[in-house]
Sequence to fold (367 residues):
Amino acid sequence: MSTILEKIAAIEAEMARTQKNKATAGHLGLLKARLAKLRRELITPKGGGGGTGEGFDVAKTGDARVGFVGFPSVGKSTLLSNLAGVYSEVAAYEFTTLTTVPGCIKYKGAKIQLLDLPGIIEGAKDGKGRGRQVIAVARTCSLIFLCLDVLKPLVHKRLIEHELEGFGLRLNKQPPNIYFKKKDKGGINLNCMVPQSELDSDTVKSILSEYKIHNADVTLKYDATSDDLIDVVEGNRIYIPCIYLLNKIDQISIEELDVIYKIPHCVPISAHHRWNFDDLLEKMWEYLKLVRIYTKPKGQLPDYNSPVVLHSEHTSVEDFCNKLHRSIAKEFKYALVWGSSVKHQPQKVGLDHVLCDEDVVQIVKKV
Fold:
């Protein structure tokens, strides 16, 4: 393991030494690709699987999963205790939480699992302080709460983002709009739809040759960087929405709070005094992008207490049927829908109809 870490340190040192200009762009791209490969080896070591450890991961329950990530002693456990009513040990020393502590809250009819993860430290992506297990659990979440201390500088935010990015997590970003496909012959075929400031044919070839790819189609649909291309080639990057929680606002002035409110993706809270929790939950709902669908048995009123919760990318009637039970889609005849996704109330629809939030659905089966 140390040899991989030494190689990573050597490459980072060489990148720091190298001047950035057009002549060195290809060389820097090559170094970035090598770095990404070494990082991947660090995440998934070669050879047989190791021991199971102490069981960091927790069984997934509910409609969505939110992970609390942050340095030690920023108030993650206090927040979980006050939000979900679950006891997570709280004390005045660092690293109080040593394994994942799960909790569950019900918000707008959806069950949301909250995970209090142990604090991570600088160098977590290289395996320091059990950071790799923590970030591996964070990869499985639908949303990440990055807990920060208001009194400590924003350098902490950059450090944690750097740790998570080194592990293949991309916060509040969209996947790069790059088309990439390997082929058997024909060399590297590069198409640029817009002028590129960083990538040219030689840089792309040097990055792909590091991955032993010599025949591929690459289409750049925007002004991309070499990091974007490496993300697409690696293919193991995870794009997760993230909310920055600035905790301990009871210790700052109102003027400072006004400034903090202007930071994007940010919610100031006080976990101890339970201040601003409603704003936090509202923002969480907005970032999770969940859609509630109410069921209506024939001849009865809709059941508004327990909606079927779908993700906004999968909201067809077929997805709704599969969420209820796999066999329903096979016996499906048509569905009656009331709500904003249809013109008439009710309207007959098929399996491919896309539902909106808070629609009411009644399914009619084949006899």
